[in-house]
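Notebook entry, structure prediction.
Reason for the run: the old model in the group folder had no record of what sequence produced it. Starting over properly, with the input documented here first.
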Amino acid sequence: MTLATRKLGSQGLKVSAIGLGCMGMSQSYGPADEAESIATLHRAIELGCTFLDTAEVYGPHTNEALLGRALKGKRDQVTIATKFGFRIENGKHLNGVDSRPEHIREVVEASLGRLATGHIDLLYQHRVDPDVPMEDVAGAVGKLVAEGKVRFFGLSEAGAANIRRAHAVFPVSALQSEYSLWERNLEPEIIPLLKELGIGLVPFSPLGRGFLTGDVKRAEDYPEGDYRRNDPRYQGQNYDANVEAAGTVRDIAAARGAKPGQVALAWLLGKGIGFGMDIVPIPGTKRRKYLEENIAAASLKLDAAEMAALDEALAPGKIFGPRYSERGMAMVDR
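New structure, fully documented this time:
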């Protein structure tokens, strides 16, 4: 199958209905495999999964460089999203954020070089910087758009007030934020605001960092260096309760002859239709096998009863543990 496209916000950005999160090709989930990662990127293009998500902090820097190598001769076939906003010095990610306008410009110039491209299709602020007014951030990105170095502006994990402030200065096309059956914090306030302003939603970790695929282990059973060793939802009693809550995903998948992860993605795509807005998940993988499974979710249409059963089984309050450590949660603008 070849993926359909969806509009992402009201500013003219069109992307594949499912994107590809590239972070894991360079970090967080086991050792890197460049040959397989590049093969996965090329297979994604063949299947029409052309919305590719990276960031300067992934690596740092190595993930953008990987895309730059992989996309030689193919740049015009893809939509590249990358991000600025963390403090990186001497190739190391330091604690803290930096969205000063002069720093945004420095990051964009460096990202363009690593990506071997003349423009970034979608540029996100990775996390809100409390020391820099959002109006200054939006204005800086707006200047880069006017210069042709960036096409569209996005935010990541921004709260309602900062979304409004940014959008008033320069139109925001997309909010990237964690949203899935596993994490529903956007529903009360953020999703209605996105619909009001004509901003698309790009859910990252749409498979609960792998938990919703059904192929999970306890935190301590993952190797050193794997992000999930420190994920509170994979630990102790939280793990036991979350496996039970995810049982409905596994049951619907079995009844449909599908994979649990495909059901989780189909739920997200269905939510977009139900909310009357654009939702484009970006499941991450570095292997062709899982890429193909994820893309196949676009052809799985859940009925109203299945959507309701999933809504209920994984409702807020039935998932145990915070989605980040205390330090990570402190950087989410809510």
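Summary: The mean pLDDT is 95.
The old model has been moved to the deprecated folder.
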